[in-house]
Design a protein that fits this description.
About 25% of the residues lie in helices and about 25% in strands. The strands form two sheets. Strands 5-1-2-7-10-9-8-6 form an eight-stranded mixed β-sheet. It is of the alpha+beta class and about 270 residues long.
Length: about 270
Amino acid sequence: MAQRSFWKGYLKLSLVTCPVAMMPATSGAEKIRFHTLNSKTGNRVEAHYVDAGTSKPVEEADEVKGYQQDAKHYVMLEDDELRAVALESTRTIDIDMFVPADSIDWLWYDKPHYLVPDDPVGAEAFAVIRQAMAATGKVGLSRLVLYRRERAVLLQPRDNGIVLWTLRYGDEVREPDAYFAGIKPQKTEPKLLSLMTSLIGKRTRDWDPSMVHDPVQENLQAIIAAKQKGKPARKKKAKEAVPESNVINIMDALKRSVASERDKGS
């Protein structure tokens, strides 16, 4: 069943505008979620803001945003000051520019959403924008307020719709050179590379979503079901096997690995 839209607004490119609706492309609704309870009463525990200096509760009307300038001092900002730097419209996806689809590294991609036309009259304009991006191999860039925050977004044509990705900002993605620059290039022995390639080939399958199922959720559901029936839940001891380094015997390890995969297939 298709999910109901959680956002409605307009897609705009220059003078072309059409109404659109958006739904998250992913869902965490099936995940088991916990509340914090008082073990003595079984009641839920509520969180309240208190003044760090006086330990007294703070009324919602007295709460303001603050930027910490040093250990003891903050610059307080009022709501109208924060609104002054925000987008003029929170209901329009105004495509500012286009870039080649393959020019944005996947590290920048954050959360996907499905964007669809929300009115038969605007369906043609939506289709033209989508088809033109697909034909030119381009994706659109814009800004939008989502989840109470202004975000950079990317519009990517997919099938008959558009996938809108929220993007991470420039200061959120760390440069890989700081981590990879110190790794010295290695000259791999051809036989080792051949064995490793063979091992990868034997473990290669066609992608299926079931490959990324969550066994922890399944185990939690079993525990909860048992406790609901008044039965003690089976407790498994967590074991974390730390494999020994086999740098010296990597050739033997690869040979045994390939042989093991061959035996599994027979």
